[in-house]
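> @MW can you paste both from yesterday?
MW: sure, first one:
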Amino acid sequence: MKRKLVVFDHPLIHHKLALIRNKNTGTKEFRETVSEIAMLMAYEITRDLPTVDVDVETPMGIAHTKMLAKEVVIVPVLRAGLGMVDGILTLIPTAKIGHIGVYRNEQTLLPHFYYAKMPDCIKNSTVLVIDPMLATGGSASYAISVLKERGAKNISYVGIVGSKTGIETLQHDHPDVDIFLAVVDEKLNEKGYIVPGLGDCGDRLFGTK
């Protein structure tokens, strides 16, 4: 069964997207705004997290309430995914963090895997794979495949700017994965970059270009 695709329509997210799209936005503001967008998205992303009933003693008596039933694991795709981690941690400070390294060959546009380190609890956790740009979808799909090989079952992809090509790739390769994006752009250019997009997110986050 195909899982859901959520593209956000929120005034604050649109406002912040305009800031990070602007080529004149500096590294500090770009990094802070990417984190803020991730935080705003996290509220909706976590809407369907499973909960368990618990009783908590308040100063006035017993409250019948709920807590999260599973651990949450955030897995940024290195390196651009790191820019979204702190924003999501603001809402889920107890989340564990894994890391996965996948880069795209600029000539072939194919993904290359080079690193993975995951918490032991990943098999029974809610896993959020985060990467700001869903362009061809190759790197995200490969990263999700690596996680499944390590036993992850409940996986969602969280990005900021996506393309129709990237969405179709993920839905074809991983129909059991929910996709969350702030916006879907028009097309990819001949180098596989999203147009109009926002440029190379990793370079803009870390000031490397």
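MW: second:
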Amino acid sequence: MSTEDVNRPKADGTIINVSGLIKKFGEFTAVDNISFSVKRGEIFAFLGPNGAGKSTTIKMLTTLLHPTSGEITLDGHNPVIDSSAVRRSFGIVFQDPSLDDELTAWENMEFHGVLYGVEKLLRRKRIEELMKFVELWDRRDSLVKEFSGGMKRRLEIARGLLHHPKVMFLDEPTLGLDPQTRNHMWNYLKELNKSEGVTVFFTTHYMEEADRVAQRIAIIDHGKIVASGSSTELKERTGKSSLEEAFLELTGKTIREEEAGSIDHLRSMRRMWRGGGKK
């Protein structure tokens, strides 16, 4: 067996497998030969400083970018070859709202269900179940522009789960929310993870959030995964008492350039549905 075979993530019991993944933009290497896997039903945090490569990796996982080289499978499908199957396998919530403020909460859910081809009777039942779960059923006929930030985020999560995704990608889902709303939202997500078996893949700048919620964490810096494991394992490895201290020990304290904003992700999503990801 070759060294490459030994290091390749195993398929059994996993839903995301990444092996030798590289993404270059001209001479710049944004993602530099990373390998990792995510177990089915796991809550997985993907952390890194600005510009570390995490957004580029997520774009490749969600069919928005094609890798320069390497292999990805999501629920057994290759995002490059089987992009439609991969898109049906995941839901996604970006940092910036992607709801239509001029539609009602119900209309936003209904439009999403139609887009994903969810059969009408199942769609209506699923919308009711999810909106009750996130405590928005009584506001189903209200315009989204009347919602608070926390209510919008809960609706986006409900919408992302409408088509029964196997993986939920969350890019900074609680940024800008008050601590009470953040706590409430994570309680919903953990319950959905438990009740529906949804794999949660999230990024966050709140280290205590990753410490408290994630079962396993991968830290990426300068395009490379520099460490992975549970929060306890990362703290033990660095000899630090908090995840934030461990993170700084592993990535340094130099201020980094900002990555592309989430609005750019949303524009990419629109392009994706109009004709596929970009190379």
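> thanks! Residues 1-11 have pLDDT under 50 and may be disordered.
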